[in-house]
Amino acid sequence: MTETTDEIGCDPAVLMARQTLYRFAALTLLDPKAGGWEQLDALREDALLSEAANLIRDLPEATLRKLGPGEHPLSKLDPDPVLNRLPHTRDKLNEEFENTFGLLVSNACPPYETEYINSKYAFQRSNTLADVSGFYRAFGLTTSTTHPERPDHIVQELEFMAFLLGLERQAYSCDAAIRQQRLEVCREAQARFLREHLSWWAPAFARLLSHEDPGGFYDQAGVFLAALIPAERALLGVESTAQHTEPSPLERPEACEGCELIS
User: Which of 58-72, 133-147, 246-260 has the lowest mean pLDDT?
Assistant: First the structure.
């Protein structure tokens, strides 16, 4: 008897691998001033990270027959090229970060979901911010006043997916009476958040990273992100938006003071 995609996705090793890769993707895009370089530097010799990537790359169920705009094949889901381009000091990474993203919200490569919604639809932008925040609140996440950030920042959204996978892993230790319900809630939230938020704009953002930092660290971080999204779509059964997405900058949305997720 062959395993179904659902059974593969529920394997504890697969859950841990997926969570590890989301955390790594988030870390590559974290502001170096928040400690990103130190954490990435420590991962150079981390066997778990490489094993996680190898596990997912070896899953036939993680391969899509047809990629969406901006997405990369599963073979590109490799942390080594990213870490190989990591500058040797935090100052150098910070310089590359500022050159890629600018000191304010970058019009060329904005790391915020709502910046990719057509500027004509201001109401939709507000609704999207509210929906993202609603997902976070539904799972008991609060905002941080220490490191304020908009809820639709790419790091926040990647961390949220890692958080959901952590909850799913924890659900297996629950009593049988509530285990299945919690598992279903976690899986449904992952699929919905990926479908409604992360998957439609992250590949476009990743493509712009490569454009803004060709041959650099953020180029490779973008390639990794653009390979992670279709792998996740395959495992969660999420269809591509099948549209070419570009930033559509306007003045910053009202909800500029977002959050850094904490449990």
Answer: 246-260
Residue 78 has pLDDT above 50, yes or no: yes
| Mean pLDDT score across all residues of the chain | 88
Query: Is 108 in contact with 99 (CB distance < 8 Å)?
Result: no
Q: How far apart are CA 261 and CA 263, in angstroms?
A: 7
Q: Can you tell me the distance from the alpha carbon of 70 to that of 47, in angstroms, rounded to the nearest whole number?
A: 29
Say which CATH architecture domain 5-236 belongs to: Orthogonal Bundle (1.10)
- Domain residue spans of the chain: 5-236
Taking alpha carbons only, the member of 43, 13, 18, 48 closest to residue 158 is: 18
Residue 210: which region, alpha, beta or left (left: phi > 0; alpha: psi -120 to 50)?
alpha
| H/E run at residue 166 | helix 154-171
**Which DSSP symbol is given to 116?**
G
Name the residue with higher pLDDT: 178 or 81. Answer: 81
Identify the residue whose tokens are 């381009």: 85
Nearest alpha-carbon partner for 46 in 18, 24, 16: 24
